[in-house]
Specification:
mainly alpha
Length: 120
Amino acid sequence: MKYVKQFGVILAVTLTAEFMESLIPLPVPASIYGLGIMLVLLAGGLVKAEAVKECADFLIEIMPLMFIPAAAGLMDSYHELEGILLPLAAVTVVTTVTVMAVTGKCAQGIIRKTRKRENG
């Protein structure tokens, strides 16, 4: 029953995000609204991390399975992407490296701040 409740919390946030996407006339995907809502709920203490942890861990574990249909769709439309394959690969590499660098710097900053707080 615990997992159903945890999944229900995540589903409620997801449905709220979908509703917001249909109401707000901005080109922002519902998943981004959902991440923001969950961040506010967790940071504000309205939802405890333990209230969604096991279900969230499970969803993260199966996330690679969710990319299979998208990859199959890309393979199906290869002839359309053939002309822009090199620029597409370059953009993919540059953005991947950029995201990794920014994530690493943010993680280092958080670790330093946490250590200062613990030592000082």
